[in-house]
Amino acid sequence: MVSRNRSQVKDHLGSKVLNHPELRNTKATEYMSHEEKYRYNLSRATAMLKLIDEEGMDVNEISKVMSHTVSGFTTPDGNPLAVHQVMFVPTLMNQADDDQVSRWLGDVFNGTIVGTYAQTELSHGTFVRGLRTTATYDPASRTFDLHTPDVSAAKWWPGGLGTTANHAVVMAQLYTDGQPRGIHPFMVAIRDRETHRPLPGITVGEIGPKLGQNTLNNGYLLFDHVKVPRENMLMRNARVNEDGSYTKPSHQKASYGTMVFTRVAIALDTVDALQIAATIAARYSIVRRQGEPRDDGQEPQIIDYQTQQLKVLPHIAACYVLRASTARLWEHHTHVTSEVRGGDTALLPELHATACCLKALVTQDCSEAIEALRLSCGGHGYMTASRLPALYAYATAGATYEGENTVLLLQTARYLVKQAGGSHAPPAAGSAVTYLSRPADDTPFAVGSPAAYVAAVGRVARGRVTEVAAALQADRQTMPEADAWNQSLVQLVAAALAHGRYFVVREFAEVVSQQSSSRAIQQMLQLLFSVYLAHAVSRAEGDFITYGGLTPSDIRLNRRHLLRLLAELRPHMIPLTDAFDLPDRLINSTLGAWDGDVYRRMFEQASHSPLNTDEVPASFHQAMLRSKL
Ligand SMILES: CCCCCCCC/C=C\CCC/C=C/C(=O)SCCNC(=O)CCNC(=O)[C@H](O)C(C)(C)COP(=O)(O)OP(=O)(O)OC[C@H]1O[C@@H](n2cnc3c(N)ncnc32)[C@H](O)[C@@H]1OP(=O)(O)O
Ligand SMILES: Cc1cc2nc3c(=O)[nH]c(=O)nc-3n(C[C@H](O)[C@H](O)[C@H](O)COP(=O)(O)OP(=O)(O)OC[C@H]3O[C@@H](n4cnc5c(N)ncnc54)[C@H](O)[C@@H]3O)c2cc1C
Question: Which residues constitute the domain of residue 52?
Fold first, then answer.
């Protein structure tokens, strides 16, 4: 396939998927059993994998087209092959050495090997160094002994592990030469390739129902002294030689690379879910009329209530702003990864800090926004058929997996306070933290000036970071490091979020300034940016007074300004969401179809309820009449 940009790839694959003989016909899955849902989603995930293979896409393109826009259609209840595609394959590509890649990748691509990424254990997810699965090297047999010391060390959560995968990249504590060497990745066969039965020494199964994404097929896995050949430790970074001697990786956290990639992918992808939710809420808010009739005799469209505009419109602006910054992060990740492969790890610390912060900011903002959009649809937004509950379940999972958000923000904060205190290597050219070592931008605040807002967002970030860095430094003089750190946790998280917000708005300011194709588009981007900025100030007024240089009068002016901007944006709401270019079948919502025929669709979906099949369901006689007796 020729190289295409993200949106072209999405469109291309989107139409292929919608017309694919095995994918085009969908079934409602709400009334299926857990097992039926899994079978339905798995067979569609497999068809999708074949399609990707036929298209000859490389790993980068595959992950781009794994977007929620497409995968929400192919696998509405969660893709049991997602972790195979998004984590297992990239881990092999980036952490296996060339020999290992050539040994395994053929079987991965012909579908013989289906894998997962098995890191989290029942008792440890966040604190990766605390994982307790061991891999002990024996030079005599040239094998590793993989072992789960007790049930609390069982792997728990990996996607596709339940009943789908036959291999896993297992993150385990390496022991060699009698020394602990930290967490390393191992390629482990867990099921027979032919029979799919668990291999000797392996206990594996599915963990049970969740808030959503129930066919991600999350599983558990225990090892009882399972022997794995030496060649199965992924050896691009660290190595264990035949005699058991150990070669360190070029970067201490090189084996965490898959997590960085997946955080970047999740940040990018959660915006897709927000776009779908925003489109549904926008369309419904036009169709829905309720309230005292106006002069024209019609009840008002709910979008004309100021409160409704506040519930819906800022999130449309957020779609545009967050899409730009996450796409930029994606490009930056590609660049840094190629540098790291070439042996230069200088940019890794900041990439890690930025990926942590954006993954957390985007998943938090998007899940809050999707919940607000669901509420904006009143009772009907609570129905599964609106799709809003599933979109929320998807976005909020992103706040936990691939690093719980608070924990990730603390990683960013750690980097920021080091930068503010000068105890880290100075930032490279183009770094996102140079503002910390420069005087604050003193552009005076003025309602209506995006540049003045961006400067204020920067002052908040700078103020938050420098203040908490100083508090931490002072506490360090009087108490142990861990206590000093704990004393500042809440402020550290706030500082990292403020930094993330500054990153996001600077990226979008650049997008707006570089847009030159049309004056109308430039004006629309400016309006969206103004809405985003005014809304950001209204969400954190205290911060903007404390650190941003705004006065209480500026705050009052901003509140009025935001409402005026919303009224200005309102007529453009539908074109702005139509521009996401989401076909009805990909949106899959009774409330969000393009023609606005909401009420007919709601009745139509109710007709699928099995309780409506008979006028009087058998359960009435079985449960209710009997209980009367
Ligand atoms: C567009 C494509 C569509 C994609 C669709 C996506 C959706 C797919 C659907 C489902 C998939 C879901 C799959 C979910 C998978 C998972 O959840 S896998 C498990 C993920 N687990 C975690 O993320 C655990 C979080 N914890 C950690 O990462 C770490 O424990 C830690 C919090 C970072 C701490 O690590 P550790 O204790 O080892 O760290 P310290 O020894 O304290 O050292 C800290 C120093 O190390 C630096 N560091 C840490 N991590 C990295 C890194 N990754 N890269 C570079 N550097 C790193 C850190 O900055 C410190 O440096 P310093 O000492 O100089 O300050
Ligand atoms: C849907 C889903 C899919 C998943 N898929 C996979 C997968 O494919 N592979 C895999 O290996 N794992 C997977 N996971 C596991 C996931 O990565 C972990 O659940 C996640 O990293 C959070 O870790 P935890 O569960 O240990 O949370 P905990 O760390 O126990 O979090 C609980 C609370 O403790 C707080 N906390 C913990 N440590 C600190 C700290 N140092 N400072 C301050 N607060 C702290 C957190 O902020 C949080 O409020 C998945 C999880 C989910 C929900």
Answer: 20-95
